[in-house]
Amino acid sequence: MRFILYIQCLVYLIGFNVTSFYAHASETETEKDTRKPVKKAVVLYGEETLFNTIENLTDESIQLHYDSLKGLENPPVKVMSQIELFLRIKTFSKMEAAMLLDSLFESGNENYALINQINLFLIDHDFSNVDNESFDYLKHKSDYPAHLLYGSWNTTKPHPYNQELYKQDSTQRLKLSSKKFGTYASPVDKIVVTSRFGYRWGKSHRGIDLDLQVWDEVKSAFSGKVRFAGYFGGYGRVVVVRHTNGLETLYAHLHRFKVEAGDNVNAGDVIALGGSSGNSSGSHLHFEVRYKGVALNPDQLIDFKAKELVADKITLVKNSWGFTAIPDGVEYYTVQKGDYLFKIAEEYGTTCNELCKKNGISRNSTLRVGQKIRVI
Ligand SMILES: [Zn+2]
Known about the structure:
With about 375 residues, this protein is α+β, with helices and mostly antiparallel strands. It has 8 helices and 23 strands. The strands form 7 sheets. Strands 6, 9, 10, 11, 12, 13, 14, 15, 16 and 17 form a 10-stranded antiparallel beta sheet that branches. The protein has a 3-stranded antiparallel beta sheet with strand order 5-20-21. It has a two-stranded antiparallel sheet with strand order 1-3. α1 runs antiparallel to α2 (about 75-90). The longest helix has 13 residues, at about 75-90. The site of zinc ion (ZN) has 5 residues, from loops.
């Protein structure tokens, strides 16, 4: 018999003290199971929870606890209203629960017990058979892709957005590919990654560099509409495409444009010819993936070598600088006190290089307790 532990982290926000950590193990059949043991964990904010136990927490036991509080001489009204709310969450969809978490964070700093309890509940709650994910932004009809998420269309600047656009967000589910709007296509034919996302030589590199020869074709990674095509500072000739799936991709140091703002493109359509315009040493494609203007680590979404997506659906979780992209079905490890990269790599049968690549970090990055590391 062996224990399989799963890591999963639903809500992660830097800026809150992650002082408590919950992990549990469950027995499972092992015969053909060759997966690495991973831990199931959820990040908590402080140590408070609504109930002092998380084991065997049934509606009845909660109700019993509630009734006992009610019978007290001075009933703790606030706690009781939180328990009422918690009982209702079980009827919520995952999206509704996430929205509730949003509003709790907005309402101030006093709801951590409830927030923690919701997190604990979500980690154990199986949403997999609840197919009520609406991806509402996809249903919205507009001339501009994903207009419900952005609300504006700017053809004069590559980066017209500011924090106002995502200030209210906490999590957003995106469907990256579908029968209707297609899937991912590699921006260049031959994949040689020359620089990855993250901090390089003390500067932050907001994209990934793919080697190419001048005049090589550059293709749109997803379907959508060209939002910007022009010369812009260090980017040189640059194309930005807003995609139906909600992302924007940026292609820089181009030699020739093959599209202009307003053109509709499919994944794989040639949008430009590569080059080394702008601030570029040697010809290459600087490729960025952004959501509401926030640069995501492309390696978290795209397997460049395999020319495919890491997952068809992703969850974008708000953090203090923007968003972390969490592809469905990918396992994460939450950094604990005393962890270091090599130790985590060894535990998951991977290498430090692989972890660095997947997480956009360098080998000597400092790991913070509570930081989420993509391990598989
Ligand atoms: Zn670059």
